[in-house]
Design a protein that fits this description.
The protein has 224 residues and is α+β, with helices and mostly antiparallel strands. The strands form two sheets. Strands 1, 2, 3, 6, 7, 10 and 11 form a seven-stranded antiparallel sheet that branches. Strands 4-5-9-8 form a four-stranded antiparallel sheet, with helices on both faces. The chain is globular. Bound molecules: flavin-adenine dinucleotide. The site of flavin-adenine dinucleotide has 13 residues, from β3, β5 and α2.
């Protein structure tokens, strides 16, 4: 269990980074930063012995993730039923080009969280959670869109996934070639990677006459 008064999540036997432990971290601020930068998580569950890993949107609220989806979806029904789940978020920062094929790698930041979700049933909390999800995806958009109606709310399951067993793992920097390979004639280094966002393209049936809102033109997800 974690202590809410510390800056770190406690490593558990299931979240301890065993290989290359120096890349592992339980720092709460780092975990939060990785989660806040991302918009897609991959949710793993096992149904009747078969693992499924599906992409989902998410938002972080304190030490919990919010997940949402169709109430009719098997994934959402399974999660709402309290099935054990694993949620992963990954940022790819670079391709690491080494002198040896063995030491080729990637620079990345990722978070793995283990736990179970709970449905948010209270209508006000549910509405707020939906607003949080939109705000996480597109900051500033919430007040600038029609809120969900009763039917849409009914068709949507919102889940609270507490961050209890959590680890981060980070690789950064140049390749880790063997000393005896450093004099080889092969180029070595890093190809940095970033995600770019283009200029907003209007829907073909757009009737709004105003300019594109600045928060859309300036949309970026910055690394904190
Ligand atoms: C970027 C992204 C964001 C998404 N965000 C959300 C979200 O926030 N909430 C949400 O509910 N859904 C989201 N989805 C869709 C989600 O991945 C599932 O497709 C959806 O939840 C349907 O689940 P299900 O239980 O009905 O599917 P299941 O009935 O469990 O799926 C049946 C089979 O369909 C196939 N399948 C299902 N989903 C996918 C997929 N994404 N890609 C390829 N094959 C698939 C698999 O073979 C699976 O076994 C997102 C998808 C993407 C790509």
């Amino acid at each position: 269990m974690i202590s809410m008064t510390t800056d770190r999540f406690d490593a558990t036997p299931r979240t301890r980074v065993k290989r290359l432990p120096d890349r592992g971290s339980y720092d709460r601020a780092l975990v939060h930063a990785i989660l806040d930068e991302g918009i897609i998580c991959h949710v793993g569950i096992t149904v009747e012995g078969q693992p499924f890993v599906l992409p989902m949107a998410y938002a972080r609220r304190g030490d919990a993730l919010l997940l949402h989806g169709s109430s009719a979806s098997r994934l959402l029904k399974s999660l709402a039923g309290g099935i054990h789940a694993c949620v992963t978020v990954t940022h790819l920062d670079g391709l690491v080009i080494a002198r040896s094929t063995f030491h080729h790698s990637m620079n990345y930041r990722s978070v793995v969280a283990l736990g179970t979700a709970t449905p948010i049933l209270d209508p006000e909390r549910k509405l707020q959670a939906l607003a949080d999800l939109v705000e996480h995806l597109v900051p500033g958009r919430g007040p600038d869109a029609r809120p969900p109606n009763d039917q849409e709310m009914k068709a949507t399951t919102i889940l609270d996934f507490p961050l209890t067993e959590v680890s981060a793992k980070v690789r950064s920097g140049p390749p880790g070639d063997e000393p005896e390979d450093l004099a080889l004639p092969h180029w070595a280094g890093v190809i940095p990677m970033t995600t770019q966002y283009g200029h907003p393209e209007a829907a073909p049936d757009l009737s709004a006459k105003g300019p594109i809102p600045p928060y859309l033109i300036e949309y970026r997800r910055t690394r904190s």
